[in-house]
Design goal:
The chain is an alpha/beta fold. It is built from twelve helices and twelve strands. The strands form two sheets. Strands 2-1-3-4-5-11 form a six-stranded parallel sheet, sandwiched between helices. The protein has a six-stranded mixed sheet with strand order 7-6-8-9-10-12, sandwiched between helices. The longest helix has 18 residues. The N and C termini lie far apart (66 Å). It comes from Emticicia agri.
């Protein structure tokens, strides 16, 4: 059975194709009775718009590209849920790629998405990305762009981020107020925007409470799972911290496991809090205190801004940075 078309609906209802098209789009130009007639008939006949025909007519693909470092990361999977929720409601498809923390892969992903003529792009930068000329190039080509979570101050684009500074400040202050003085901060590579903001929040809390910053208590980790364990073992053996504050999902689990492997009592000997969206944090033993990013809201907001830009043809002069508050969930591990 062939798919029904707008022409078929128009012929059956003795209406013009333009009237049917406007009725299906909910145009104010069409009266409510006609809209109801068209929509009921379209539903009865199982009518679905032809995406290829729509894209040719509107000169749009009705698709947006999303590039994240890793879908398996809880934050990014939740952010994608937010993106897809908005896109689906607005009639857009989402094409998702992973950079796997590789600049070259990120570049290849962008080239592929632009080649597919997506209407816009959402991206969270890879761990290797310092040069953003590839993003500036797609902007020059007129492709709408929103950068979220891992951003760069080198590019003029709409950005959506969590309040990384405040979240790190509150986590560190909580540890201080619980009596901890030697707080190790295990964090991501130093070039990441999130790393710098969380480190500044950590430092600010120490300064507020008169605790000298000790650079030996700050350790940067790459993305290999075994690296975090080695870093934790080293800092525990050499610096003897009484608390640990980690700066990502991956580091939270890897570091927590390393502390437990050393048979160190949490929180009696070492208190622990992580900047993480782990959904199983409350199931750990003891339950893990966390600073939670509003990942779904970040994805949702980024998608809304992108689609507004696509549909309203906003200019680069209207760019803004949206900062969304984090939430601190205190559990047994940090008390």
């Amino acid at each position: 059975m062939e798919a029904i078309t707008i022409k078929d609906i128009a012929k059956a209802l003795n209406l013009s194709t333009s009237t049917v098209s406007r009725a299906l789009r909910g145009s104010y130009e069409i009266n409510s009775e006609t809209k109801k007639l068209v929509l009921e008939y379209a539903e009865k006949m199982n009518y679905h718009p032809n995406p290829i025909a729509l894209s040719l007519k509107e000169n749009r693909s009705r698709a947006i590209g999303v590039i994240v470092p890793e879908i398996a990361n809880n934050f990014f999977s939740q952010a994608i849920n937010g993106i897809e929720a908005v896109a689906y409601d607005r009639g857009y498809h989402v094409v998702i790629f992973q950079s796997h923390e590789s600049y070259e892969r990120e570049l290849s992903n962008i080239q592929h998405l632009v080649g597919r003529k997506v209407d816009g792009l959402l991206i969270s930068l890879s761990g290797e990305t310092t040069d953003v000329s590839h993003l500036q190039e797609i902007q020059r080509r007129g492709v709408p762009l929103v950068v979220f979570d891992r951003i760069s101050n080198e590019i003029e684009a709409n950005k959506v981020i969590a309040d990384n500074f405040q979240g790190a400040f509150e986590a560190t202050e909580h540890l201080i107020l619980s009596g901890r003085k030697r707080i190790a901060h295990i964090t991501s590579p130093s070039l990441l925007y999130t790393t710098s903001q969380r480190l500044e929040g950590y430092k600010a809390a120490l300064e507020k409470h008169g605790i000298a910053f000790d650079e030996n208590l700050v350790r940067y980790c790459g993305f290999a799972p075994e690296e975090a364990q080695q870093v934790i073992f080293d800092v525990l053996d050499k610096q003897h911290p009484d608390a640990i504050f980690t700066a990502s999902d991956r580091l939270a689990l890897d570091s927590y496991a390393a502390v437990k492997a050393k048979d160190i009592d949490i929180p009696k000997q070492v208190a622990f809090i992580g900047f993480t969206n782990l959904q199983v944090a409350h199931l750990l033993d003891p339950p893990l205190s966390t600073v939670v990013q509003p990942a779904f809201e970040i994805g949702k907001t980024a998608a809304e801004i992108l689609l507004e830009t696509i549909e309203n043809k906003q200019t680069a002069k209207a760019v803004k940075t949206v900062k969304i508050p984090t939430e601190v969930n205190l559990r047994t591990s940090s008390n």
